[in-house]
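STRUCTURE:
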């Protein structure tokens, strides 16, 4: 007797993030790491500390939070493209979240497998419409002001660039963790930024995955 044919429900299939729904069959995803943070979680049952990685994944169709239990020791950085499956899905605070478990096989994928869309193809947002924890933001703005500042992060000094950008809906503070060579008066099209609340005010954050190119006058 030959080997049994696999049951359809056991065959992993690749699904875009926008189409993810809680389901029983195994699922594979191809996505880009947008944010990642390594931490440890203490189990209440025995006090054992367990490593985990949390952050955001995107594939151009949607952005979802993820939790990765017992991740590898090597760094997982923003911009890395991963193929992972089978994954689990759960609802956390009313939002769908991806979970990588011990059963999940995670492999690096080539960036060419998930090309970045042209900035012009991403719908632009007005600064006045931005809210807390918006991700993959694209805005067309003019730089009002920018200045460099040195800060200490994890016992190392880093230079960041902060200031204000403007469009016809108003102004908005920003912080740039990578030198995108911003200068006052520039008109820019910015994609891949995200917003956060820092010391009680919203700001637009640019980092390694953000793209900046000349844009229309704001």
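SEQUENCE:
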């Amino acid at each position: 007797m030959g080997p049994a044919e696999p049951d359809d429900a056991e065959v992993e299939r690749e699904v875009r993030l926008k189409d993810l729904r809680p389901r029983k069959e195994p699922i594979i995803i191809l996505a880009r790491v947008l944010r990642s943070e390594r931490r440890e979680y203490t189990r209440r049952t025995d006090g054992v500390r367990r490593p985990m990685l949390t952050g955001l994944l995107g594939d151009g169709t949607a952005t979802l939070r993820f939790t990765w239990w017992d991740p590898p020791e090597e760094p997982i950085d923003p911009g890395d493209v991963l193929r992972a499956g089978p994954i689990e899905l759960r609802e956390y605070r009313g939002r769908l979240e991806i979970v990588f478990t011990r059963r999940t096989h995670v492999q690096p994928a080539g960036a060419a497998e998930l090309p970045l869309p042209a900035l012009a193809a991403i719908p632009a947002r007005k600064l006045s419409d931005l809210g807390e924890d918006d991700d993959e933001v694209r805005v067309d703005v003019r730089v009002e002001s920018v200045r460099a500042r040195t800060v200490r992060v994890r016992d190392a000094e880093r230079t960041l660039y902060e200031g204000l950008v403007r469009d016809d809906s108003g102004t908005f503070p920003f912080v740039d963790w990578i030198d995108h060579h911003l200068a006052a008066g520039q008109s820019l099209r910015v994609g891949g930024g995200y917003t956060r609340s820092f010391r009680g005010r919203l700001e637009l954050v640019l980092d390694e995955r953000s793209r900046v190119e000349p844009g229309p006058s704001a």
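REMARK: Residues 149 and 155 are 16 Å apart (CA to CA).
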